[in-house]
Amino acid sequence: MDLSGFDPERKRASGERPRSERPPDPGPFPEHLLRVPGFIEQVVEHNLATATRPQPVLALAAAICLQAVLAARKVRDERGNRTNLYCVGVAPSGAGKDNARKVNKNILFAADMVEHEGNEDLASDAGLVTAVEAQPAILFQIDEFGRFLRTIGDPKKAPHLFNVLTALMKLYSSADTVFRGKAYADKKRNKVVDQPCVSVYGTTVPEHFFESLTADSLSDGFIARLLVFEAADTPARQRARATGVPDAIKEAAEWWGSFKPGGNLAPEHPQPIVVEATPEAGAVFDALAVMVDAELGKPDEAGRSLWARAEEKACRLALIYACSANAQKPVIDADAARWACDLSSYLTRRMLHIAHEWVADGVFDARQKRVVRVVRKAGGKISRSELCRKTQWLTQRERQEVIDNLLETQQLRHEEESTATRPRVWYVLA
pTM of the predicted model, to two decimals? Predict the structure, then answer.
């Protein structure tokens, strides 16, 4: 057996990843996942009818978060999962990200449930916990979420914000138990919240969010807790008429506001109703669990952290689907389970693809990935002169080192085109 071409140290230094391990792009958001019957569908339709630039994917993400906070601390599934979710809406600047947040605000205000909307900025982890203590069923809607992640991810830039991520991760996993904050010498400052149900809907432009992704954020589990909804383009502008909240939506939200399982003690110690799952739904969840176990068996660390939360997110999504379809008698049926599992699986695969494109293992790997993105943005093929113009942030030596390594690892291939003078050089994505 000839092992002369096998050199693990060289491959590790160059950042090469075997082609078979590169996560495939699952493609644009599937159309069949955009429809959730009942309340969510009504909110999405109202959103699209009043938006200057309709964004169905972002409208769905925001409506999911709205239903999540309306049913917070009031329902659970057989496994104890609650409705709290962290969703991120990603769209280019000027593509219509604001309307979904405004729709959620207006619905909560019209239903006299404005206290369930959290602050739009988080000043510290202590401020976050204080807000949750005051209102355990709460939805934080944060604009420029990518900038926010880049800031709180670096303790040198904002040490008072660095612990916000840790608090959000703990709150995410504490919806079915008691959350205890930091221990202070002054006992009055110690925070205890019974079954907090915190949801987040953040909006951001692609570059800011993707640049905030790091190997640490993938491995520590925060990114694995996110559901990232991408709107790939800027839709055509429409002359939308501003209207009030439709009566059907307002009445549905008011019903959730008045629904208090557990009686008068519900705000202090919730006793949520159990939403049963049908045997058909159980079979769908079991199929997802088998697939997740197979993915967890692979050596990819980023993949392990993301797939580890896929089934949990699917269970929460199915619970939200059931509440939307039939608020008074919710049941997790096969349709709810299939939608939730398909959505969780698609978003996980998409995030794996994004992580491979953006998360780097060092400075050199970051340069490689950025050059590859330049070539891909040019349509997968770019001339040498154009590549030089678009990578002026690199020195001539750095650029040549990156190109040589991309050619060697077969991420790019070299083509020449005959001209009247010297041949024209092209680089093409392999």
Answer: 0.86
